[in-house]
User: What shape does this take?
Amino acid sequence: AQSVSQHNHHVILSEAASLELGCNYSYGGTVNLFWYVQYPGQHLQLLLKYFSGDPLVKGIKGFEAEFIKSKFSFNLRKPSVQWSDTAEYFCAVKSGNNRLAFGKGNQVVVIP
Amino acid sequence: GAVVSQHPSWVICKSGTSVKIECRSLDFQATTMFWYRQFPKQSLMLMATSNEGSKATYEQGVEKDKFLINHASLTLSTLTVTSAHPEDSSFYICSARYSGGGETQYFGPGTRLLVL
Assistant: This one.
């Protein structure tokens, strides 16, 4: 079965710092990749997605992610975070079995 | 667009009772709806996938008689936790996908269930 790994569950950083969250998956076939964000007290929202084409994907709120097929990775980045980026971030992968598998999430806290 | 709601947002019930959770797509027709369960500090675990008008497909280890799913219309799916026990206490989240929307799922706000 496919699995999705997110490391460093808790990330604490200051405003204006750069953020990178790692996501690795175990499935070897064609995949659709997603990053979702869950702000405190809110529901999951789609941040960005990759289906095909340019492996560098631009999302909302200044986020981007890069699909590196050889590394089975889809890392999320933001050059300069803001306090409002405090949230939980989930990487998700959909493979041929049509199921969306989620990582355990990264709890990101941005200190003003 | 693509808003999904869940009701109730919070429910507390006694052990042995049944609880129904509704998931609605407010501005689109959801051909497929998904039910997830999330434990504290853990990932979302898919419980079942339901297509409108057909029986739900349950993931391995999920009791279909315990977690009844009905997807009677293109905008509503319900999850009923039958004879709830304290170990069923969890955060239940639904998502929906529409035809032509690709593989993107739109998530509801979740329902917190506490069984006493």
